[in-house]
Amino acid sequence: MSFRLTYATMFNPPEAMHERFDAAMARVEAGLGERHGLFIAGEDRPAARYAQRHSPIDNELVLGEFALADEADVDAAMKAAHAAWPKWRSLPVAERARLVRKVGDLMEQRVYEIAAALTLEVGKNRMEALGETQETVDFFHHYADDFERHAGYEHELPNDPLEGAVSRNRSVMRPHGVWVVIAPFNFPLALAGGPVAAALVTGNTVVVKAASDTPWSGRLLADCIRDAGLPPGVFNYVSGSGREVGEALANHPLTAGITFTGSVGVGMQLLRQMASGAYPRPCIAEMGGKNPCIVTDKADLERAAAGIVRSAFGMGGQKCSALSRLYVHESVADELTAKVMEKIAAIQVGDARRREHWLGPVINEAAYSNYANYVQLLKAGEARLVNGGQRLREGELARGWYVEPVLAEAALSHPLWKQEMFLPIVMMHRYRDRDEAMRLANDTDMGLTAGFYGGADEVPWFQEHIEAGVTYANRPQGATTGAWPGYQPFGGWKGSGSTGKAIASFYYLQQYLREQSRTVVD
Predict the structure, then answer these.
(1) Where's the active site on this chain (predicted)?
(2) Catalytic residue set
(3) Range of the domain at 304
(4) Environment class of residue 166 by beta-carbon count within 10 Å: exposed (0-12), middle (13-18) or buried (19+)?
């Protein structure tokens, strides 16, 4: 197929894509219930304990039994990665890039099967699942290409102006050692695979931990890396709780650097921990978002409504980039609300395996309970629920974690304007002055993504004043979501990110390296 799948193009795929996904889903479902181990030192490794995991689509659907690593497993993985590091870092740039690219090639061959597993494990619809898998493929290809293009970031510098001798200078970038990757549940493949690809191609070895809710995705990543033939110990996979396995990884004396994607609280804790000790170690923390969108009186409201609904409710709002705060000029608020409501009414909620269902379940019972709690808080704060507020329990939906999309108008004093909910809930405010809207949009400790709908002459004003790492203007494909490797670098300002550098940007790979100045006098 000539169709190029990205998050921006996923809304009108060819029929063949659906046929292939349905066939892959049948194959994957036929193998449900298997036991999945760890991957350490180049070998599949059993664990002392396993946990049975069920699909959020249907609580009675058993996905399999997944290993629960303990401190001994973590120690074995870290030591294996440490032992493999000297040989891995000494490989030529072209050879490391070849092996990393091969992982992407294998994953692309398995894109439909992996996407089917993501739908079952996370509850995202087929296009979101296919998008995440293809995005991960692109991470492996993009980072291999980028590192080769920059020749490993080695630079000849001018010779010192010495008489009677030649003093040659060179700047080189060198890897740190064993790199730990801690992935979240919402993009368990892409937000593990992307950092893994970056760490590997730059010469680090890796230990990755999957989120407790989504161990299958990490295991499928491990399978691709195993089958690509990377040397034993270069990549290792463990699964288990953040409290036990995550802390053991962060505290391990061989941990040279960490990439973490998750909450602000845990990210800040890891940053402080990595800054302490005998010397500071790098920590790339990609944290939360409380993402705004401003709609002015010059906006194309049809385009705005499409982008708002896609970003607020796509994947149940369980994206750090999801639209959470909507600021609409009072003169167009009623018309925009009507258009948004039309698009919400067209959303079909249900079993994400089925093509017609755009919105699947939220991830687990805790998220399901949080939804009810947030709805109650909105009502208690005298917010007007324009749409939604019910947990869906009828028929086949009774066995999954299904909820209605919520659009609520609330007073600016309501505390939920400040809280990341990670659910399909968007709050709206009518404003009079656009500078007021900008002040409100920036009134947050986070600064990940932001959207804007207005006149072409207003876009530079938005871009100049908004405090966010990723911005979209007049984009119907998504008001605040939809970044793709090679097209939109993705990273946050303020409390949304620790480095000021974005995923898949010009500057991302250098974060996995440290500079060494080399002078040799002949």
Answers:
(1) 286
(2) 286
(3) 291-484
(4) exposed
